Amino acid sequence: MNIYDVSKKANVSIATVSRVLNGNPNVSDKTRARVLEVMENLGYTPNVFARGLGLNTMRTIGIMCSDSSDLYLANAIYYLERDLRLNGYDSILCCTGYELETKQKYFDLLCSKRVDAIILAGSKFIEPRPKDNAYIQSAAAMIPIMLLNGYLEGENIYSTICDDFAATYHAASQLIRSGRRKLLYLYTSTSYSGANKLKGCQAALKDGGLCLEPEYIHQCRKDITAAKELLLSLREQGLEFDSILASSDSLAAGAVKYAHAAGISIPDELSVIGYNNSILSRCTDPELTTIDSKVEALCASTVNTLMGVFGGVNVPSRTTIAADLIKRATTNF
Amino acid sequence: MNIYDVSKKANVSIATVSRVLNGNPNVSDKTRARVLEVMENLGYTPNVFARGLGLNTMRTIGIMCSDSSDLYLANAIYYLERDLRLNGYDSILCCTGYELETKQKYFDLLCSKRVDAIILAGSKFIEPRPKDNAYIQSAAAMIPIMLLNGYLEGENIYSTICDDFAATYHAASQLIRSGRRKLLYLYTSTSYSGANKLKGCQAALKDGGLCLEPEYIHQCRKDITAAKELLLSLREQGLEFDSILASSDSLAAGAVKYAHAAGISIPDELSVIGYNNSILSRCTDPELTTIDSKVEALCASTVNTLMGVFGGVNVPSRTTIAADLIKRATTNF
After folding, report:
1. Are A257 and B74 inside 8 Å of each other by CB?
2. Residues B186 and B281 occupy one common structural domain
3. N or C: which end of chain B has fewer CB within 10 A?
């Protein structure tokens, strides 16, 4: 949407729209009111105008995240905001929730604000059905789209990704090497990142001569108590497991709670590995062995890539960063 | 700073500045370059111009927080952003760190962006020396300043505060009533909120016929391990205590770690109470009794008050919200 849409809709010339925006008194009150009303209806903001004028940039980056109170995303926002500001850019934050429709709405809103780029923080923004991502690809025709730990093919779309596959492959391999044979995999999200975590775990088991049977893969709300309850009920159903690899520290913290409730000793009888190396991993007792998904490095790389794009540098469309396994007290290796 | 400053500094007429902003070709390249350079030097952004024109507002609120990765502030940002958006406002986020100079710089930056109001999230923005807060008071002459859990006297400054005094008073009273006599108080910040927490605790002890001696008041970095180490060293020095009231869940989580390390049973030998009812309080074992400081309600009230200010409604300059004591397993009441 641009100044032409406004002029067409208001049935006035572009010069008139421009006069209204300039506060030029040479416009009748009635026309001014109509133009302003159309702008409001179209969600047209003066930023668009400012950009259409001599000044080419607002030096503002839109950041979208599903939920800023999520520990991982809270850290991501902190690092992104800091690194953008160091480069002289402001950020406008939108917390979108998890519904596709809402995400699209906020995305359009940011576009209409004429931000210089949009960063989609977290892997929740890429939908499984290609057509549901078309709105992102078409926006990329106008401004760079940066994906933080998500991946989408497309011109002017840049991804920085943690190597989740290698991370869970390594963690599961370590569990097998330490003698574990019955690994339970707990996850919340089926996003790009989530899918890779599961694949890495499956590959490690396969390479270890084992198999991750469907009854050993369980989805669970990202909530400590929910994970604890799920594990208690699995145990009650007779499922036997000697190790848990979880796609987040919240789920792993729930596994520790489960072990306490069931009188199971960690790590003697049960090994637990979390994901993200969040503050939760140091709160549980014993403290969690966890995968450090390097959110600070991911944010730095995302901002660096973006600055490269702005500077006309030839940057890679995809950057992968290796995770670390942080060994604490919930594993015996 | 406004269009007049630009015209003066660039030694051109306001009409010329306006022409540059409008992309009007009727300006020499040399003049255009000079005006753009002055704008850049002055940190003048087109937003200012847009506002100076027919459209009176960018519908954008500046949010400042010291650190968005802090659990309390991460939640505050989430709720503020959500509630502002529900009212049709965007937010620009600045994470400022803890240095006065940096805070002032970001504050000025937001003002120069012509935001419609600034929300200072968290009590870290108000300095003990009145002259260090003068910059906030003078900005309030132009736009409303909203303090989330901070307090500063002044026209056009609005505070929404958790009743920290009553919260710690109640918590400490409960500890005394449950038979505790040697209360240790752990805190990180000496902010307005921090001071009230300490005062509430002191008042409760006094009213219970006890006294909070200086050796029972300890400052500690907001870090689980730091708190644990501090408590271990206090114990080594022979300090005896049967209960800990902490100004954050991080410190309280450290107290739980300390008890484990020292072989002390919670809550039989030691009671622990945290602050904020954060996710940490459900990670520790046993789970923390903690004060719920009602961040969601504080944010809702802050945004409501701001909308009242915009709407010309007579709103209170100070709103106080009561905290809740959430009883879990680290206390015996």
Report:
1. no
2. yes
3. C
Q: Are residues B118 and B47 in the same domain?
A: no
| Beta carbons of B279 and A250 less than 8 Å apart | yes
Which residues of B fall within a CB distance of 8 Å from A68?
68, 74, 77-78, 81
**Would you say residue A331 lies in a domain?**
no
Query: Which token pair is B144?
Result: 């409303």
Q: How far is A211 from chain B (nearest CA, A)?
A: 31
**Contact residues on chain B for A22, CB-CB shorter than 8 A:** 18, 22, 53-54
Per-residue pLDDT tens, chain B, 333 aa: give them.
566 678 888 888 767 776 776 566 678 888 888 888 888 787 665 543 343 333 446 788 999 998 888 899 999 999 999 999 899 888 888 888 888 988 888 888 888 777 899 999 998 888 889 999 999 998 898 899 999 999 999 999 999 999 999 999 999 999 999 999 999 999 999 988 999 999 999 999 999 999 999 999 999 999 999 999 999 999 999 999 999 999 999 999 999 999 999 999 999 999 999 999 999 999 999 999 999 999 999 999 999 999 999 888 889 999 999 999 999 999 999
Q: Check if the interface score ipTM surpasses 0.85.
A: no
Mutation test of the interface with chain B: which of A55, A94, A330, choosing the one with the most B Cβ atoms within 10 A?
A55
Is the entire prediction scored with pTM above 0.90? no
Contact between chains at A54 and B20 (C-beta distance less than 8 A): yes
Residue A188 lies in a domain: yes
Are residues A92 and A235 part of one domain?
Answer: no
Domain residue limits at B35:
3-52
Contact B54 A36 (CB under 8 A): yes
A and B: number of Cβ contacts within 8 A:
146
Q: Does the residue A329 lie in any domain?
A: no
Are residues B130 and B11 part of one domain? no
- The number of distinct structural domains making up chain A is 3
Q: Do A50 and B54 touch (CB under 8 A)?
A: no
